[in-house]
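okkk here we go again. third time trying to get the guanosine-5'-diphosphate bound version out, last two times i messed up the smiles copy paste (missing a bracket lol). double checked this time i swear
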Amino acid sequence: MTAHPSDTIAAISTPRGKGGIAVIRISGSDALSVLGKIFNKDKNSKPKTQQAMHGWIVDGKEPVDEVIVLYFQAPNSYTGEDVIEISCHGGPYVTERILDLVVRTGARIANPGEFTERAFLSGRMDLAQAEAVADLIQAETEASRRAATYQLEGRLSERIQTIRDELIRLGSLLELELDFSEEDVEFASRGELEALFNSAEADLKKLLDSFNRGRACREGIRMAIVGPPNVGKSSLLNALLEKERAIVTDIPGTTRDVIEERLDIEGVLFTIADTAGLRETSDPIEKEGVRRAEKSAEKSDLVLLVLDGSQPLCEKEKQLLGWMAESSIKKVVVLNKADLGKKIPDKDIRRVLTECQILRLSATTKEGVDALIDTLKNAALSGALPNEGEVLLTRERHRDCIRRTARLLKEARKSTRNKMSQDFIAMDIRGALDALGEITGTITTDDILNRIFSEFCVGK
Ligand SMILES: Nc1nc2c(ncn2[C@@H]2O[C@H](COP(=O)(O)OP(=O)(O)O)[C@@H](O)[C@H]2O)c(=O)[nH]1
Ligand SMILES: [Mg+2]
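finally!!
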């Protein structure tokens, strides 16, 4: 594990560019002495923790900027160390100039996420909470904000701790029982052990089941609009975005590249890709477009298959449906141009694609587009944003840890049933505890920490 840091770090914590103010943050045991060398404050009193001070940043005799300084005395700060926050005027030059001064006076430039890493190392927050900080900064919609906030509050960590407590109890019961196995004493009945295994497994499963929704909240949903040429895919993208983003013409093969747009659908981020119409073609550019369309569909969470519903289903479209049926990606079939007629009955679709939702709409008149939006939200989040305080698994890292835990528990249960030696069972249970501990960081390695904190921006 990383040793506790002893040097003092500094960074600009606000985004680059011109703004009302910018904040420079300094953390470490020298924070206060660095400030002392560059700050002329109004009164000669000593800095008080959590109180704002007004004054000037000076470089020798040269006044650099008029600022407000906040001092947070260790351990009551974000990092758990002494922290100084300088709010200066938000010009990129003046901000850099002050940072430069801070560094010349004894701090070094912080790495990405280093303030939060220090918060973790000093026990101010656990690893899942540190990750939630990054998620909250990245959040672009209400769903991602909620998922991050609940995790930042420590709700996921609490759930994990509850399961760990259960496992610790299970482990100690087993050890007791096995210690006395010769003497035929029962400290824990089979039934009780079984019940403990069951409840731990049920808790893990519940978390695992929440992953798809959780990931949709955190990362959003990738959706590809695919279908034959000229059925209205680009018109549908424009209707969803409520702007003329993609070129719409009556010439088949107009869209040749993949156009990606982001859309907030009632709190969930959708990245929507409009693609080239899928057809056999000899035009090399269109051919590449078709290849990209197929690729885009393959890496989506959801595919909107658009067909012209005002024409009966043709052979080519049946082939396309067959191709869709082979993939496990969720799909919604849109029968467009409903204003021109409805010539494709549901059963024609379901004959090939047994499980999918079918919607009839018109991208031109917008009739039915609202129903599509509802359907999309449902497909992504089973209809709902995270409920008040609901704990969702949002990261693959967490899911992997829980999967490993579940696998080891299964082994432990099997070994217990088969009356294997105590060492075996204890080892699996310890392994399960460690795997769970990786989520909150009770167990961690430099490798895990580097991966997590390098995702952060500098200054956080
Ligand atoms: N009547 C009608 N025409 C549509 C509808 N959607 C698209 N179109 C027309 O169909 C043609 C092809 O549309 P486009 O969006 O470029 O199709 P794409 O090739 O699938 O992207 C254009 O002339 C559109 O105006 C619709 O719902 N109703
Ligand atoms: Mg198009």
